[in-house]
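2024-03-11 09:14:02 INFO queue: dequeued item ABC transporter permease, len=426
2024-03-11 09:14:02 INFO validating residues
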Amino acid sequence: MSTMAVPDIAVAPVDEGFWTRSRKVGLTLLGLGLLSAVLFGALATDQQARFTLSDDAAGAALEINGTIGAILFGIITIAAGAALLAGVPKRWFLPVLGVGLVGFVLSFLCWQVSAAPAGQNFMPLVNIIRGTFILALPLIFGALAGVLCERSGVVNVAIEGQLLMGAFSGALFGSLSGSVWVGLVAAALGGAFISLLLAVFAIRYLVDQVVMGIVLNLLAVGVTGFLYERLMQTDAAKYNSAPRFSNWEIPLLKDIPVLGPALFRGNIFLYVGLLLVLVIHIGLFRTRWGLRTRSVGEHPIAADTLGVKVLRVRYRNVLLAGVVAGIGGASYTLALYSFTKNMIGGKGFIALAALIFGRWNPTGALLAALFFGFADQLATYLGAISSSIPSQFLAMLPYLATILAVAGLVGRVRAPAADGKPYIKG
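2024-03-11 09:14:37 INFO prediction written
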């Protein structure tokens, strides 16, 4: 038998020309900076914009003249845009982009805070940070569930359903048992139930994973909505009055200015969410389990050849993702609210966007979730100070931020190579 050597073919990198991604983003930042300096500067007032280091108007504060602040931070955004437009080393892209975005947001806030009615022209930073983390919690858990699935090669569009089933199960069984811990376990099992269906149909029966995720979301909405109307609406005291986790204060850390009251006087879901980010990050990139998970998500045939049980890894990680998302759903009903019909309201899809924005990395997903959580909290704050911006626009602000972030800031991203591709053992 003769063999034929196949020469290596060098693949030339794609030439983007002058308008690289960095320069396009720089041009966008330049436009935002001009908008900030000119428009926000003109609309701002000469009142002091106060950013208090507490959860109310009292105490120490950072103050700046509204007009001067709006123009100054607009100029900073212009400078960041000009730097990207001129061309900066690749390692400086994200830091410069971050400076530009922060400058734009601060310019906007100087306008809004200084133009607020008398007595409301302050922003309590402790409340803003605390609210950002609270609103980001379901996104953090949902995005981590997506990381676990998609790093294993299974597309998880069912995050919405996992969160919703977790919230419902936590409320129902927490109410029946009178125990937050029973509710928490039930929430984890509720999320795992949706994941089990995803795993069986996507891995065992090779159903299209995106279609299956959408079907499972509709199933969760239908089942929880039906049971809500039949049980919770008819007897809320019995079926929808779950106890709540109280806040846990961490000694010493709780006394750190600004961050202490915001982060270290929170409930169990905040601590568990941040701990899971650390654990999953270390697990994925520093352990044998993580190496096997990533190999199954990138090249399952090679992993199988080396003795990795591909299907077993996928089943296990998809179920684990459901547990994580279910706990995220419980952060609604065992800490903040009573269960209401379809209460997740699209947060699962924002979590999916955070997963993509974070480039399938637990730490990146956390930062993306905080970005979206801040957009949500900012909408709430602007409504509280009677902002001149229409309330309808404020309500869509988190979703608009999601679209802009994924479409404009992420650029080209590469999902795990085997993501969404069923594996059939030969």
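2024-03-11 09:14:37 INFO annotate: The radius of gyration is 24 Å.
2024-03-11 09:14:38 INFO item closed
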